[in-house]
Design brief:
Elements: E1 2-6, H1 19-25, E2 30-33, H2 43-55, E3 59-64, H3 84-101, E4 105-107, H4 119-138, E5 143-147, H5 160-174, E6 179-184, H6 185-190, H7 195-202, E7 206-211, H8 227-236, E8 242-245
Parallel strand pairs: 1-2, 1-8, 2-3, 3-4, 4-5, 5-6, 6-7, 7-8
Length: about 280
């Protein structure tokens, strides 16, 4: 397995732009981020972000499109009326960063249900926005990821089946086949999916994997979820992509990697290919 560290949830004791270097110091070679900007960023903010990753010698594996104000309860913009331009602006920024750094995976948080809006209307808007996003990602041989979430009462994608229904609908509408399932083992487990069944049945649809233990969303070994057998199952089923460490460390961030031997941390992958080449 190839592991990357999510710098939006790990090393949060450091400034955002200092985190890639900390990841390198812990022995890893790749990172991922949620949307790293407050809103549509200025050119200087983008340059500082990309420089922090490049200067640390990191590969950027996955980047979220804007999810809105997470602290205020937002969980994406894809299906939210009135925020289409904000979402599409973030698509252009993220794909531009992907073109520069070789990142080819972009997570599109779906968004909460909105009071007074027909869910079917939101789903149709989501389809339009995701077809737009997959078209932008296709220009650099990229993929758009759809995930299920836990802990968000108004978020409509809770299970593997929920997310895959969106993936299938987008791929049928776009004809591009570059929308894929982000299998977050933490969220799926909390929401009641049987992980062994998900892996055995849907491995071919998985474009990225994220892990955290249950309960608590801590590092592997902090809870009761048997993560190593799940990763072995993914490998046996043919998954050869990345596994994002997307957990909240129970102590110091650097200490939260003790479960993973140093020899397994560095990225066993080709160098990133910028400017639209196949990653």
């Amino acid at each position: 397995m190839r592991y990357d560290v999510n710098c939006s949830i790990i090393f949060t004791e450091l400034p955002l732009l200092a985190r890639p270097a900390a990841v390198a110091g812990a022995g890893f070679g790749a990172v991922e981020f949620w949307w790293p900007f407050g809103s549509t960023p200025a050119d200087g903010e983008i340059a500082a972000f990309t420089a922090a990753i490049q200067d640390a010698g990191m590969r950027l594996v996955s980047l979220n499109f804007s999810a809105g104000d997470l602290a205020a309860g937002d969980r994406g913009l894809v299906s939210v009326p009135g925020r289409t331009q904000e979402f599409r602006d973030s698509v252009e920024v993220a794909v531009g960063i992907g073109r520069q750094l070789g990142c080819r995976s972009f997570n599109a948080p779906y968004g909460n249900r909105v009071d007074g809006v027909d869910p079917a209307v939101q789903d149709e808007l989501a389809l339009e926005n995701l077809v737009y996003a997959t078209g932008a990602a296709a220009a650099i041989d990229g993929q758009v990821l759809i995930e299920s979430l836990s802990g968000a009462a108004r978020y409509p994608l809770l299970t593997t089946a929920d997310a895959l229904a969106v993936v299938d609908r987008v791929n049928a509408a776009s004809g591009l086949a570059n929308c894929a399932f982000l299998a977050d083992l933490y969220h799926l487990s909390v929401n009641g999916d049987t992980l062994g069944t998900v892996i055995a049945t849907h491995a071919a649809s998985i474009g990225h994997v994220q892990i955290a233990d249950v309960p608590g969303r801590g590092e592997p070994g902090s809870g009761r979820l048997s993560i190593e057998p799940r990763l072995a199952g993914l490998s046996a089923a043919g998954y050869d992509g990345w596994v994002g460490l997307e957990y909240t460390p129970t102590g110091a961030s650097a200490d939260s990697f003790a479960w993973l031997p140093l020899r397994q941390r560095s990225a066993a992958a080709d160098a990133p290919v910028p400017d639209g080449g196949q990653a």
